[in-house]
Amino acid sequence: MKKPTTQQSALKFVCELIGHRYEVSKNVTSHVKEYTCKCCNHQLTTDSKGNLTALTPKYQEINRVLERVYNSKRLRLKEKSFTSSIYELRNIA
Known about the structure:
The chain has two helices and four strands, in the order αββββα.
């Protein structure tokens, strides 16, 4: 097992002392995001109720499936919108 370097230990100490500095690392959907601490790489995500929770393998899998479903739905709606606008243009002419 690797020993943490003194720099990593110092960064974890800073996070414990003054708190984490989270930034959005991934937008899963428009309302679900994954966050990572700039200092210690601690990861969080939003759960089903909108609360922040630790990013466990279970939540990683949930977010991966949710992202796939969300993107396919957006693509399907975009295609439907495009074909309906073409249909409307044909009926006008």
